[in-house]
Write a structure and sequence with these properties.
Elements lengths: L14 H7 L2 H4 L3 H17 L5 H20 L11 H13 L12 H37 L4 E6 L2 E7 H26 L1 E2 L15 H7 L4 E2 L3 H6 L2 H27 L7 E2 L18 H24 L13 H25 L1 E2 L1 H9 L5 H10 L4 H18 L8 H7 L7 H4 L2 H6 L9 H17 L2
Parallel strand pairs: 3-4
Antiparallel strand pairs: 1-2, 5-6
Helix pairs in contact: 3-4, 3-6, 3-8, 4-5, 6-7, 6-12, 6-19, 7-10, 10-11, 10-12, 11-12, 14-15
């Protein structure tokens, strides 16, 4: 068992205890970050005169050789090491001898793991932002394509008023824009370097923490060494933002599932993003959307678990904090996978415009506009509301839409109606006259699309 702390102990750790304590099975994920942090630390130790030029060069060369051998498969990260830090340091000492024992000067595993986790989360946050940007671009393109694709808008899952598919997609555009903004804000608070905090009280070595931070592109070193080793707020913030992303993806997935059903037939998913049934040959199942919806719980679970872990931990570092990794790694992989697959699914789906428009027409979504017509002809709104309610009841009994009623039928319920009622309640009129910013009318949507064009072009 390769350990870095055996001097105080007179006998070997029980194997079961060792296995329970070890983290190599999962913290090997930030091997690259551990190497990067070690190289920055050694470079700083040399600049401050703690290591000679020769020692710095041989250590960095040794670290690079370990990284190369792991990359090409000639060196395996195995369970004989307690954690990734032990793996790197033990192999370094094997390769370069005494100089390798100086790698850990002025450093503790507490600030080392805090650094590795921060570096790893920072890297993954950048990749997640890129996936979000790709999804935003896909939604934006769909909005531009469907400004005139009419569909029912819903409240309580009941048809309410006609909108367009561009307008519907635009709601998710705003959600994911907020998600992107949250990740950007989190990155700023995350980008503080804990290395140099030591175990909890810093070190007597003359470390240049500003230099170390700059070498790893942090904005600054942490200002309190106890907080530096025990802070996991940035992980909680990231998991919270990820949970919100998954909530948005889950809502969107639910709608894709409904729209893909035989009852709606608003869309058809591409074969590459669907599966069949082992017994029912007619089935084309929206499995990707269902899995995205289902995997949301995994990310919620990671957030709740870490909040629960952190709530009772006194300052400074405690071993409980090792529990931040596995669930966070799983949440990161889940969110990234769901974003990529969801993006591919909606980018390749086919929209059935006729079915969407027919659904809006047959669901009395233009009833509000019929009431507005009466109001514009001098009828009090409350009276107009009652008259249109009678119209709807009449249409239900006749199994027709408002558009199908004859003028005589209209006049039998209210003499105020004239021939222009048909133009007033057409899908085009109902949507096109709603042009305040944020509404589904084409002029309003063109404004929003132009704003989103500028927004996407501004993303780094």
């Amino acid at each position: 068992m390769a350990q870095l702390w055996g001097g105080r102990f007179t006998k070997e750790t029980d194997q079961l205890v060792y296995n329970f304590n070890a983290s190599i099975s999962f913290d090997q994920k930030f091997f690259a970050q551990d190497i990067r942090g070690s190289k920055a630390h050694v470079t700083m130790l040399n600049a401050t005169g703690i290591l000679t030029d020769e020692e710095k060069d041989v250590i960095i060369k040794g670290l690079d050789s370990i990284a190369e051998d792991v990359a090409n498969g000639s060196l395996a990260i195995t369970a004989e090491y307690e954690d990734i830090h032990s793996f790197v340091e033990a192999n370094l000492i094997d390769r370069i001898g005494e100089a390798g024992k100086k790698l850990h000067t002025g450093r503790s595993r507490n600030d080392q793991v805090a650094l590795d986790m921060r570096l790893y989360c920072r890297d993954e946050l950048v990749e997640t932002k890129e996936l979000l940007k790709q999804l935003l671009t896909t939604i934006h393109n769909l909005m531009k394509e469907h400004i005139h694709t009419f569909m029912p808008g819903f409240t309580h899952l009941q048809k309410a008023q006609p909108v367009t598919l561009a307008h519907h997609f635009g709601a998710y555009m705003e959600m994911f824009k907020r998600d992107y903004s949250r990740l950007t804000d989190i990155y700023k608070r995350m980008n503080v370097c804990p290395l140099g905090s030591g175990a909890l009280a810093g070190t007597t070595y003359p470390l240049d923490r500003n230099m170390t931070a700059q070498l790893m592109e942090f904005d600054a070193p942490s200002l309190n060494s106890m907080d530096g080793v025990s802070d996991r707020d940035y992980v909680l913030e990231m998991l919270s933002a990820f949970a919100t992303i998954m909530m948005h993806l889950s809502r969107f997935s639910e709608e894709i599932i409904i729209w893909n059903s035989n009852e709606y037939q608003f869309i058809e998913l591409d074969d590459a993003y669907s599966t069949g049934s082992s017994i029912m040959p007619q089935k084309k199942n929206p499995d990707i959307a269902e899995l995205v919806r289902g995997k949301t719980g995994r990310v919620y679970g990671a957030l709740t678990s870490l909040l629960t872990t952190m709530k009772g931990i006194p300052l400074a570092y405690n071993k409980d904090m090792q529990e931040d990794k596995e669930l966070t790694f799983d949440a990161i992989d889940t969110v990234k996978g769901c974003l990529a697959l969801f993006n591919g699914m909606i980018a390749t789906m086919t929209v059935n415009k006729d079915a969407m428009k027919a659904s809006a027409r047959n669901g009395f979504t233009n009833a509000t506009d019929a009431a507005d017509y009466l109001v514009n002809h001098g009828v009090a709104f409350r009276d107009a509301h009652g008259i249109v309610g009678q119209l709807v009841l009449y249409c239900i009994e006749k199994d027709i839409a408002l558009d199908d009623m004859t003028l005589e039928e209209y006049k039998a319920i209210s003499p105020v109606f004239e021939e222009d009622i048909y133009e007033a309640i057409s899908m085009e009129t109902c949507v096109n006259k709603r042009n305040t910013i944020g509404a589904p009318g084409p002029d309003a949507m063109e404004q929003v699309i132009a704003i989103n064009d500028d927004y996407l072009n501004s993303l780094q």
